[in-house]
Design brief:
It comes from Maribacter algarum (ex Zhang et al. 2020). Residues 25-201 form the Outer membrane protein beta-barrel domain. Pfam families: OMP_b-brl_2 (PF13568). With 231 residues, the chain is mostly beta strands. The chain has a single domain (2-24, 38-230), classed as Porin (Beta Barrel), CATH 2.40.160. 11% of the residues lie in helices and 52% in strands. A hairpin with a 4-residue loop joins strand 8 (169-182) and strand 9 (187-197).
């Protein structure tokens, strides 16, 4: 996750001076694009999810093997003024995490695959600078609710049967930044965003002293998204 973040930061910082060197007074593409009250688009991207654990007792940490997933969604944007836009970005994110629990000798007991398919409903405020030629940096943030289709919340089986359970709904806050690039026919936007759950997602095992969940006080998702938006 850190490597992805710093990679995007490098691209972000390199792009600013390179773009400025093209032309001090460039011909403005789609000059009236941002003046519309409503704008629409879609996005594609990659994601990496992690977990943050709070433990009841100091013990060996649960390990998380992270992987890259994909993200796809739609955008509805309402212009508030020259610098502020309210955005609704419903989308789907798929990811796989593997948890490694300490204290087990048998791999079948020590490992749990957590396959998550989230339907996200973010409501975000986008704060932009003044347009600089054909690009415009911005920061974005807000709240979201996510429906985890792979939560297993209603399952009667728990980790003793190989099933790791999480809550179906999770609530998050999101923070990110990016650059709008105004091309000849559309606006292209690479952006990076962090997603941080504020609600506990763990559904404990039926046994309060479970070796899998007994020492977990709370479990919250952390996610990093790199999106490419077309409007």
């Amino acid at each position: 996750m850190k490597r992805l973040f710093f990679l995007f930061m490098g691209i972000f910082l390199l792009t600013l001076p390179l773009t400025a060197q093209f032309n001090e007074k460039p011909v403005l593409n789609i000059e009236n694009k941002d003046k519309k009250f409503l704008n629409y688009g879609y996005y594609l991207g990659i994601n990496q999810y992690d977990f943050k654990f709070d433990y009841k007792n100091n013990d060996r940490d649960i390990l998380v093997d992270k992987s890259l997933g994909f993200t796809v969604g739609l955008i509805g944007e309402m212009r508030l003024n020259e610098f502020l836009d309210l955005r609704f970005e419903p989308g789907l994110a798929y990811n796989l995490r593997t948890l490694g629990f300490p204290g087990f000798d048998v791999e079948q007991d020590a490992l749990r695959e957590v396959k998550s398919t989230y339907i996200n409903f973010p409501l975000l405020l986008k704060v932009s600078t003044r347009r600089l030629g054909n690009f415009k940096p911005f920061i974005i943030g807000g709240g979201s609710a996510s429906l985890n289709l792979g939560s297993n919340e209603s399952s009667l089986d728990d980790n003793s049967s190989g099933t790791f359970r999480m809550t179906k709904w999770v609530y998050n806050y999101e923070l990110g930044f990016g650059i709008d690039f105004y091309l000849e026919y559309f606006k292209f936007t690479p952006s990076i965003r962090g997603v941080f759950a504020i609600t506990d997602e763990l559904v404990p095992d039926n046994d309060a002293n479970s070796p899998w969940t007994g020492n977990i006080d709370a479990l919250r998702t952390r996610g990093l998204f790199i999106n490419f938006t077309f409007e």
